[in-house]
Design goal:
The chain is mainly beta. The protein has one helix and five strands. The mean pLDDT is 95.
Length: 66
């Protein structure tokens, strides 16, 4: 399936939910915000939020520093 992730077209296979996409990119344990088609998805909804061909996602993860 082709998705637009952070402005780049990405081909992903075996991914049907936001949670699976985060696992695909090895981001499942990061503190982050996911926006799907301009709607912010809450963390507890990642497992139940389906993805479709052509969806647009922005994934922002936080980095601590000083």
């Amino acid at each position: 399936m082709k998705l637009v992730v952070n402005g780049e077209v990405r081909e992903v296979s075996g991914v049907t939910t936001v949670a699976e996409l985060l696992g695909f990119f090895k981001l499942q344990h990061k503190i982050l915000v996911v926006e799907l088609n301009r709607v912010i998805i809450e963390r507890h909804q990642y497992e139940s939020t389906p993805l479709q061909e052509g969806d647009q996602l922005e994934i922002v993860h936080f980095v601590g520093g000083g």
